[in-house]
Design a protein that fits this description.
CATH class: Mainly Alpha
Order of helices and strands: HEEHHHHHH
Oligomer: single chain
CATH topology: Arp2/3 complex 21 kDa subunit ARPC3
Largest sheet: 2 strands, antiparallel
Strand content: under 5%
Distance between the termini: 64 Å
Radius of gyration: 18 Å
Shape: globular
Structural class: mainly alpha
Number of domains: 1
CATH architecture: Orthogonal Bundle
Strand order of the largest sheet: 1-2
Number of strands: 2
Length: 224
């Protein structure tokens, strides 16, 4: 016989997953920013921040589900890149959020959160370099040698900036989002009674990452 309590928990998790997927999709539709002048087809959006939050809160399986559902909705409504864009979006998001969540879910500590997010960025960069090398010649209709030349000058900086921004924003937003979900009774209250200290140094590091990425983007676009 099924446990009613487990059923309730699963229902809440599915509801939260659907909410994160919807927010991720809306964010991708509303906000897109081209950050590499030589590759305007590569757009940065914040959907992986929302997907990353969902993955850290709910677990890697739910994170993968959120990523795929958001990418599917984007493909069916506003995307002009077809199924290739759907596949690449799903791979990119899953590489980041599943890696981060797998590490964090083993032991939910500040250290594991940082390690997970950093590893998520590394895996994202590696996976997308490989898949851009495979898929971009087909999608763009250019020789593979041309794409190979774009790997260090276009795809590497784009994915490194994208992943770093997403990791930093995810880290900064995790605690406030968890607090709001607990206040709304969408998540159980924390078992820890002691007041947790604000992780000042990691927060400063995350802000520094965001500022650095913004300055790099502005310099690449000739603004500064």
């Amino acid at each position: 016989m099924s446990n009613p309590r487990n059923s309730t928990v699963d229902t809440k998790k599915l509801t939260l997953a659907a909410m994160f997927a919807a927010l991720s999709y809306v964010s991708a539709v509303v906000f897109r920013l081209s950050i590499i002048p030589s590759a305007p087809f590569l757009n940065y959006d914040v959907k992986d921040v929302i997907t990353g939050l969902g993955a850290l809160i709910l677990g890697p399986g739910y994170g993968a589900m959120i990523a795929v559902v958001a990418a599917l909705l984007e493909w069916l409504t506003v995307s002009d890149t077809g199924i290739i864009g759907f596949i690449m979006n799903s791979l990119s998001s899953c590489a980041f959020v599943v890696t981060a969540s797998l590490i964090y879910s083993r032991k939910k500590t500040l250290t594991n959160a940082v390690i997970g997010l950093v590893c998520g960025v590394v895996v994202l960069v590696i996976v997308m370099l490989l898949w851009n090398y495979i898929v971009t010649p087909i999608y763009q209709g250019v020789p593979r040698e041309v794409v190979a030349g774009m790997l260090p000058t276009v795809f590497l900086p784009f994915n490194a900036i994208k992943g770093s921004l997403n990791a930093a924003f995810t880290f900064l937003l995790y605690r406030p989002v968890i607090g709001m979900l607990r206040a709304a009774k969408l998540m159980p209250a924390s078992a820890a009674k002691a007041k947790k200290r604000v992780p000042v140094l990691p927060i400063i590091g995350a802000v520094a990452v965001i500022v650095t990425c913004v300055l790099v983007i502005l310099s690449m676009n000739g603004v500064i």
